[in-house]
Amino acid sequence: MSDTTMTEEKPKKKIGMAKPPLPAWMDYGVLPLVNILFALFISGIIIWLIGINPFEALEWLIIGSLGGSYELGYTLYYTTNFIFTGLAVAIAFHANLFNIGGEGQAYVGGLGVGLLILAVDQYLPFWMILPLAIMASAAFGAAWASVPAYLQAYRGSHIVITTIMFNFIASALMTYLLVDVMRGKGQMSPESREFAEAGHLPFMHEFMANFGFDLASTPLNVTFFWALICCVFLWLFIWRTRWGYEIRSVGANEPAAVYAGVNPRRIVMMAMLISGGLAGFVGMNEIMGVHHKILLNFVSGYGFTGIAVSHMGRNHPVGIILASLLFGVLYQGGAELAFEYSEFTREMVVTIQGLIILFCGALAYMTKPFVANIYYAITLPRNGKEA
Amino acid sequence: MEQSIVILLSVLDGTLRVSTPLVLCAMAGLFSERSGTVDISLEGKLLFSAFAAAAVTYVTGSPWVGMVAAIAISFSLSMLHGFACVTHNGNQVVSGVAINILASGLTVVLGIAFFRQGGQTPTLPKDARFTPIELPFAEALDSIPFIGQLYAQVISGHNILVYLAFLLVPITSWIVFKTRFGLRLRAVGENPKAVDTAGIGVRAMRYKALAVNGVLCGIAGAYLSTAQNAAFVREMSAGQGYIALAALIFGKWRPKTAMLACLMFGLLDAIAIRLQGVMIPGTETEVPVTLIQALPYILTVILLAGFIGKAIPPKAIGIPYVKER
């Protein structure tokens, strides 16, 4: 019935009955932007309520995060972590899996790279440690994801719950290892010994000095390049390989994928292992790039933010880079704001982050009818005339 | 012998105290999950309502007014969760994560703005808290070995919210399994389409479940900051919302078994507190308390793996209900 009315003779009725889908630039560009503005608007109200001029705060936020090589360095350092956790959530999401265990996987990934460097930094040169470190962080992160993945694939337990549990288990394990096992006798702070020089990744300011650039000294290190390389690899993997195609097909329609000969259990394992490995690279950035020793709580929420990053970036590497940059600006700019105003604290950044996840994630489609109506109001009459 | 009984009684006493918020949150989670809405935001609601209870109690001097505020806050967050997941079909896990992060940030921001004590609320005086109640004959029975002591030292002497929490378990059980509301609640979580066909609003049912959920979490929050402790401290929920979620799953989404799971997790916690700094007999090493504290999570994973029975969740859990057009 509806098919017969959808003929070219009654174009006006067709438009009235079924509106054309929103173009991609609306769906991927305008809609997330509107959602961010909503979140920032509410944040602005809260900032205003605690006695700060929100416009001044926004100005400080931007200057404090993008205003110079020092500020930008910190921003990109945070961005690096968000890219990894965002990609981790995204690859799992393409297989219709919700990995909220990025926090624990990053933590254990850091343990892996740390243990490796502690074992070999006296004997091997940097260029040999580097590939081993990449493998160690990925392997430990993937190993931590493998148990929830196995339980999801073969025992039918829900991955959201098991990954939450594994976050807590990771936290307890790390506390136990650092406090009770690795801490030397008479040492107060729960951390390992400092790595030798061969186990340090070059900081960006050191690295760029080789090319004559003079950058401010920041925690930003060459892991940033690795994050960008991972984005390219992941894009190739998801959209240009057979495995990526199988992951997407299981995520989109599992029965159809099974009918086409895909083994969904293998796909669950594959997607989750890659996801855990990517999250593990946060450990490399933090442990090998910045702290140069294993310590407690270096993940501090990057894993959870990855959920927001991936959701905002629509699970696409380009979107994830942009969303990571946004959260980097928020983290670094927020830290600067905390210097500027005594009322503004780190928790304000956490609050804004929560609002962004709420509006860009959970309420992502709240504004869609509204935005769509405006779009149709602008575009449809013209289309009608053309017809 | 005498001393081991004293230790045992104090551990059991501690178990009841630390299990109370778990029981309340697990019952809260039971309502929403039975109706088909995943609720990871138990943690955030617990935290935010603890803050509201402490702040309002400090200002008004009455823990009851504080509890009303806690319930109001937790109820609002539940409705927000419903607005995102039930009305707008948003992702339930993302919404829960958002509420948790929001609560973790906003409680400290507001705490600093209101009280300027680094995110804490001022310590409450004794008469502004829920204080222990002596049950009748407790003193008289204390002299009877073990059974009398159990009554006098473990069961008696808690504040009213502890008794309320454990009273709510049979009530929850009765509501969920014996009333029309409960039948509809379970049906909406198993097969929403059938419920819809019978002319019952799926969304309305899920909102009602979330409303109950909000009230229960609010009581749990009030317990944390105005009964168990005397102030709000940042991050004071410390993962208890997640433990309650684990207990709910461990209890296979049933009130009584969930309560038993809460008691077991509470017991582990009470033992862990007791063993802080104690040496393993015959060795130089301390008991790894952090690992004992991780046991609830490990046990839940083992259960989920299907090695201790099988936990089968409500069938429609996590799936937004969309009416066919």
Describe it for me?
- The complex is a heterodimer of chains A (387) and B (325).
- Chain A is mostly helical.
- Chain A has a single domain (53-340), classed as ABC transporter involved in vitamin B12 uptake, BtuC, CATH 1.10.3470.
- Helix content of chain A is 74%, strand content 0%.
- Chain A has helices spanning 2-5, 11-17, 24-49, 54-66, 69-94, 102-120, 126-154, 159-182, 204-209, 223-240, 242-252, 254-259, 264-291, 302-312, 317-340, 346-362, 368-386.
- In chain A, helix 5 packs across helix 15, helix 6 (102-120) runs parallel beside helix 8 (159-182) and helix 7 packs across helix 8.
- Chain A is globular.
- Mean pLDDT of chain A is 88; it is low at 1-17.
- By secondary structure, chain B is an all-alpha fold.
- Chain B has one domain (2-125, 146-304): ABC transporter involved in vitamin B12 uptake, BtuC.
- Helices cover 69% and strands 0% of the residues of chain B.
- Chain B starts with a helix and ends in a 21-residue tail after the last helix.
- The model of chain B has no long low-confidence stretch (mean pLDDT 88).
- The chains are: A mainly alpha (387), B mainly alpha (325).
- At the A-B interface, helix 8, helix 14 and helix 16 of A face helix 3, helix 4, helix 11 and helix 13 of B.
The quaternary structure here is heterodimer
Largest sheet of chain B: none
The CATH class label of chain A is Mainly Alpha
Q: How many strands of chain B? A: 0
Q: Can you write the helix and strand succession of chain B as a string?
A: HHHHHHHHHHHHH
Number of domains of chain A: 1
Number of strands of chain A: 0
Helix content of chain B: 55-70%
- Can you give the mean pLDDT of chain A? 88
Largest sheet of chain A: none
